[in-house]
Amino acid sequence: MAVAKSNFVCSECGWQTAKWVGRCGECQAWDTMTETAAGARGLGAAKQVRAVAIVGSNAAKPITDVSTERVTAWSTKVAEFDRVLGGGIVPGAVVLLSGEPGVGKSTLLLEVAANTAKAGKRVLYVSGEESVGQIKLRAERTNALSDNLYLASETDLSTVLGQIDAVSPDLLVVDSVQTIAAAEIDGAAGMPSQIREVAANLIRIAKENSMPVILVGHVTKDGNIAGPRALEHLVDVVCHFEGDRQTSLRFVRSMKNRFGPTDEVGCFEMTGEGIVEVPDPSGLFLSRSETPISGTCVTVTVEGKRALIAEVQALVVKSSSPQPRRVTNGVDSSRVAMLLAVLERRAGLRVGELDVYVSTVGGVKLTEPAADLAIAIAIASAVQDKPIAHNLVAFGEISLAGEIRKVTNDKARTNEASRLGFTRSVDTKVGDLRAALALALNW
């Protein structure tokens, strides 16, 4: 008898092989090879598709004739979350919110769901991780109770779709997409094939009914969203919820947004009564004493459209080892190493034999090059033991040649600094690093 042959196809990219392998030879993904019949077509196989006659409302129309009345965003009554979404939730939009375990994703979305329900809209909150009793206890603690907020604890996709038909919600929250599974698809919940099927069905329901959907996504140990990369392409908005467990400050950052700007950030504070908005977080990133202290400098960083005041602190001590230590917190370590080299070569500061510690205040992370000048001034202030003026702020990118380069949003940075009482600034108008240090430290 003839033996039936089979192929192994990658569920991520469609790569095929005659033998099973643990890692895809094309996309390098692990555990994605599934067995199929030899005659079955792979994901990348070509197949002739016949054209279908287009009639009625499906016909293409000029862009100037398209109406946008049904896609006007409505507020979630959480201003910081609306800021990240680009003004609110658009009907039919699918939002993916990811974050580390315990950072507060469920607490934030329960607050969003409750505020939306209190505004008169019907909200369905589906959880595959908690029972409805556990959600009710958390809602009582955070005052997130409303008759228009419906709770369901489900892990089966068919049952979730049934709940949607029964409730007919104006907003659907699924916590989380990795816990929902479709019985028709092989594999446990959280597998790439399951996540794709669940996401595809929820996106279809969202588009057909103009119902916005918010999905919670787990992250891997590397901080990436768990599951297939296609999930991020399918949804309309991707947000990342970040924060340190040791601090109460939380940030929601927009990574992708089809309806607004990306890289927008919203600030929250985790309290015993739930999560609270922080509309003006600049004061949280400052640690000002009455007497000036050496090794500190204030900068202005821009997150999306928001200008934030942040303080950089530096400490230098004589090294007791042949290899001096370089310890950073909240800033890029490789960027600090580069600035130390520029300070020694272009400004004449001897830092090669010193242990250097650089940190930010309040847990804020400075990733843009505009913080270079403030870091350099803080290190120079610590080396020379000369404090800078209380009303001085610095921002600008430093090149390897010691030049101060222009940065974006100069006006927004200056306005934010002036609003908080900083009357002096060392910025891109200064020619080079030596001149900036002389101006800041009165060399």
What features would you describe in this structure?
The structure is a single chain. The protein folds into 3 domains: 6-37; 74-279, P-loop containing nucleotide triphosphate hydrolases (Rossmann fold, 3-Layer(aba) Sandwich), CATH 3.40.50; 283-441, 2-Layer Sandwich (Ribosomal Protein S5, domain 2), CATH 3.30.230. It is built from 10 helices and 20 strands. It has helices at 79-85, 105-118, 132-141, 157-167, 192-209, 230-234, 333-346, 372-384, 410-419, 433-441; strands at 6-10, 16-17, 33-37, 94-99, 123-127, 149-153, 171-175, 213-217, 237-243, 249-257, 265-271, 274-277, 296-303, 306-318, 326-329, 354-360, 392-394, 397-398, 404-405, 424-426. The protein has a 9-stranded mixed beta sheet, with helices on both faces. A 4-stranded mixed beta sheet has the order 13-14-16-15. α7 crosses α8 and α8 (372-384) packs across α10. The longest helix is centred in the middle third of the chain and has 18 residues, at 192-209. 40% of the residues are buried. The model is unreliable at 40-44 (pLDDT under 50). This is DNA repair protein RadA.
Tell me briefly what this model is:
25% of the residues lie in helices and 24% in strands. The protein has helices at residues 79-85, 105-118, 132-141, 157-167, 192-209, 230-234, 333-346, 372-384, 410-419, 433-441; strands spanning 6-10, 16-17, 33-37, 94-99, 123-127, 149-153, 171-175, 213-217, 237-243, 249-257, 265-271, 274-277, 296-303, 306-318, 326-329, 354-360, 392-394, 397-398, 404-405, 424-426.
